[in-house]
Amino acid sequence: MRRSRLEAKENAPTIQIGEGQGIGREIFLGGRLAIHSPRGVRGADRALLSALPLEMSGRVLVIGTREAIAALAVASLWPPGEVHIFNLDSFEHERAIRSLGRNPSHSVRTHLAADLPEPGTFDWVLLAIRHTSDAMLTGELLRQAHGALKPRGKLLAATDNPRDRWLHERVMETFGAATILDPVDDGAAYVARKHSNELRQRDFGRTFEATLFGQTVRLFTRPGVFSHGRLDDGALALSEVTELKPGTTLLDMGCGSGAIGIASARVSETNQSVLVDSNTRAVRCALRNAAENNVLGRTLVAMSHDFSCLRNQAFDLVLANPPYFGDWRIAELFIREGHRVLRPGGSLYLVTKSVDEPTDILRRTFGGSTRSERRGYSVLRSLKRDSASSSRSREPK
After folding, report:
1. The architecture CATH gives domain 43-193
2. Lowest-confidence pick of 309-318, 360-369, 385-394
3. Using an 8 Å Cβ cutoff, are 366 and 384 in contact?
4. Which of 12-26, 27-41, 278-292 has the lowest mean pLDDT?
5. Bridge partners of 14?
6. Are strands 59-63 and 14-16 parallel, antiparallel or unpaired?
7. Which of 301, 298, 361 lies closest to 328, judged by CA?
8. Which of 112, 258, 308, 335 yields a CA-CA distance of 20 to 30 A from 156?
9. Where do the domains of the chain lie?
């Protein structure tokens, strides 16, 4: 591991992440910082930690790191300061809170919001960018980071791409100049200073129309919302396969812009939709789109990363388009919670490009599924049986 720019000191502070000491111990900053984590410090977090400056003071805003690692490091190394964590997603927000609860959090504050907090009040903004990050969202966050800083405030941006050029160019474009730091662990890092409050305004939002269930809806999205600026073909496939009847109460799981739930509410005045997403921007866009399409009275929009806000057996239909990352843990959550909130006789429709694992989860949870092919996707349907039917199906023959 490369030597840190910080000199080693005795009694190095230790930040414990995950299951505590003795698991995956890693040393940063010349011995001043030890991180304990069963998963290890990865990617952009590693690059950011190894790029921390000689001194840091004042108000610090940290964006894009997992489990509050960088925020805890800054708060431990420079305790007189005030550290803030920003997250767009409620799942990452909850993970940060749990991590803070396991460690001395000093003056760390958390923000779950659609945009960066408190413009013009921070001395530092720390930004960790993975090479797979949404380019448009990164560009918008960089511009908001510029606005969040005080005059002469500094940005420290790091990425897990050692051969990065894209992030460097975006930092230069936003701040006018940037210093390339010495090689950092597993990535690249840049420091830039805010020299002017002037920054050309740019609107990253997009408005488009889409047709689902025979209904044309007008939708607005922002960077960070799934399928920004267009309707995902998976959502279209779901709408083409789903059997939607008047009087249906529908759950749109991971709703994004809200297209599925909003269109279904427009099919009949007796239909009702609940739209749930973990992303703050998605929730705001879905609420705005429900109003734009005149279905506010028949829709409810909620933010949740685990669907715990939903009652048991409250829905006739559950439609799910889960993300593919996370080793199918998110798909399993969608399926398990979909089963819980469905009424007996209700159906879950799930769209995917990889059928083996979701089919197996549906078999374990519902007892089986059927499959339809649309637009290069597979739509899997499972029926929730009533308890009597389930008991009969398990009887030996």
Report:
1. 3-Layer(aba) Sandwich (3.40)
2. 385-394
3. yes
4. 12-26
5. 34
6. unpaired
7. 361
8. 112
9. 43-193, 206-394
